[in-house]
Amino acid sequence: MASEEELFANIDALLEEEPQLPPPAERARLREAAGITQARLAAALKTSTQTVKNYENGRSEPKSPRLEAYQRLLNGWAAKYPALGVPAVAPAPAPAFRPEPVPQTFTGPATPSVPEAETVAPVKAPAAPAAPERPAARPAVSSHRPAGKKAAKPAVDPRFPHGPLAVLDGADSAYGTGGIVLDCPATTIPELVEWTLRESGLGAAKLNRYGKDSDPLVVLTAAAAVKLGLPERLEGHEQRRSLRLPEDHPVVKEVLKAKWQLTQRGFGPWARIYRKAQGRERQCVQLAILSWDALDERSWPGVSDMEAADIARVLGVYATRVITPRGSTAVSGLELMTALRPPTRAVQDPQTGNWVPGHNPGSLGTEPMDPAPPEATPEHPVVVNSGWTGGFLNEEAYQWVRPVDLLTAQECTLPYAVGLDLNTAFLAAAARLVVGLSAPDHFHAPTFNPKIPGSWLVDLSHIELDPRLPSPFTPDGSRPTGPAWYQTHTVAYAQELGFNVHPIEAYLRRETGAYLDPWHDRLKTAYVDTLADLGVTKDLDDRAFLAAMERHKDADPAMAAVLAAIKATVKGGVGKLRERPQGRHYKEGERWPALGRPTWRPDIRAAVISKARVNMHRKLNNMVKMTGLYPLAVLSDCVVYPSPGESPLAFLPYAASGKPQPGGFRLGPTPGLAKLEGVQSMAWAVDLMEQGLNPARHIKGGDAVLDEGE
Fold first, then answer.
1. Which end of the chain is more exposed for a tag (fewer CB within 10 A), N or C?
2. Structure pTM?
3. Nearest-5° Cα angle at 19, 16 to 25
4. How would you classify the pairing of strands 633-635 and 638-643?
5. Does residue 529 carry a pLDDT above 80?
6. What does the alpha-carbon distance between residue 426 and residue 423 come to, in Å, rounded to a whole number?
7. Are 345 and 366 in contact (CB under 8 A)?
């Protein structure tokens, strides 16, 4: 191991030509003057010589937060302790870096922050292994569809020069991102796995410094699957239901004979083939088999029928902007939460001095956590084993229709019913959402605090609101009839409306944090950037926005599929937080597989949905104040209004200057803003309402719930 002085000598030698930094002797004095120990700096400098050199020469972004920390320290010292005769200069802009937020507590001290340089062991980086021989890349076959303006040129990681994934056709060609095509000579699944890990150059860097790199993904077309010995389809009722190869299938035997392993889910549409990791080197490949319905048509419209190059483009954009797919969009949404908030980080054992995995503040940790009884589902062991009969949290999205007898004659004479849809309403609700990170504690007759996430037993039946609006406290919009369990945001909204609340009991969490913030930020950026690729940008006025949205799906079907997948990732990820048991053999009180995940958190799901429903009611209420209009129906994030014209511009509130009024529904391409969902005649809407049906469900044509797979 090199000494600390050698580490400093190496790094200083690489920084000799940097004009904004003081000379080596001055740097040594500055380190001493700033009181920074060499041991801490040694930890901060743990990175490869080539990475540092590339960074200093401006050829690449820094690959390590520790290097960023060193750069910030030196820039700060250069300004604070200038060399003799040299005036102080402002520090050069540091690379964008946002530290992980530390969860807050409502009792007791906050979790102390840990200096960044002290979180990684000061050990010498091992010598870089010789790069495996890569297959020569050849130009991709030209796509039939134009490329989007910003369509996914992933930053090249030297370890993964060919991107996160490839699509294998039946002619030994593997289509990757950026238009590359690799030659893949594999004729069996074990050979394909070896090629992927040793030669393909596929994979993706971790999304968080404490996380793990994404395993390479190889997508098999029907022809490729058959060539590798797999059936084109899984036939038979039992196999179609379970979507798994039987254990005695030749390919499964082949995999096991080659000393590879399959996960407990077996060889299905999303198969993971792995060997136990050696040190830090993971040995795992993800396979997706298109002809086995790996890509659900509702989440990836039209993708399975595309050419291999176009499939690679769609999945590559998604992998670059969201995450390398790991299964359904719901699974990917959940995996993204963990990838952005890894459960562990390196901490130093005070007794041995060794660096060991420790809890990562702000994460959900490594162990699953049982919910409070009212947050669980009726079949959960917490409920069944305790004999709980105290009721359950019922925080769900709106499904409400205004009673027909509350329609006015003036409303019935309006010609149109216009549906507005909020962009990714659940994603907008996840922004800056404080949720519980620790186990729930039980309280009797607590004082309500809107800053504490949890479940409250409160009687809100005394609150009387306008019946032409849905109640904000129930999913069906009906008035509460007695005490019920509510999430914090629902109770806080009752207070916001001016009513007193007196909780009877509550299950609250002491450790809290904005767990979903990085998830929200990444998905929001992905959504906005993908819409921009389709011609829907933030700078459009409302009329131009509506026109762009009308034609955006035809502008580029590949990018339209990416947009649909991003939206499905949001909804599916939130839904997975409370995954129910599956299979006809399940018995109440048994634990099902999803309960073994730290991310099985029905309380977090309830917080997102409660905030989304409250946000919707707040807009409905503000629309009444600004326009006097009442909705006909609401379904989740869609609301239907009677309108004098076919466009939302006919009834949305605008100031005299022409700008949209804040507080109500506003058109735009970002999460939480609205777009046109559909237009029908007012007579059509009234007819559905008289039949007890929800116009918001059908205003787009078809069934909105079934179309989205809900």
1. N
2. 0.79
3. 50
4. antiparallel
5. yes
6. 9
7. no
